Amino acid sequence: MVASLQCIKAMLHSLGIKQSLYVNDGRMSAASAGETVAKTTVTLWCLQLAGWNIQWAKTVLEPAQRLLHLGLYTDTVSMTYTTPTEKLEVTEKLLDALISSYFANVPVDAEDVAVVVGKLLAILRSHSSILLVMS
Question: Which has the closest alpha carbon to 51: 119, 2, 110?
């Protein structure tokens, strides 16, 4: 049986480990590279003991100040989030198709609208309030 991720996160938090874990993605935060490595090691060890399967090919073990996490790059030097170009291009194409359908009086499925809204919400953190205004 695999332990609840919420329980693991709470336990790590009680140990002073700053982390953001979500089913198949996670990141650590610490004051130094050495501390980050140590806390990452403890976190991975706890996850494995709790029955979680680590995808080592996708796991970044070296500390980085710019890391892809949940589809956005987190940059701890500039303290910004950015969206990968490929993700922006896909979102733009979907939005263009939706707008074109509207102006051509072609019915649009609710599912297509939901996909576009989901893509826009996914980039909200990197594009802030301007995204809400422009869409």
Answer: 2
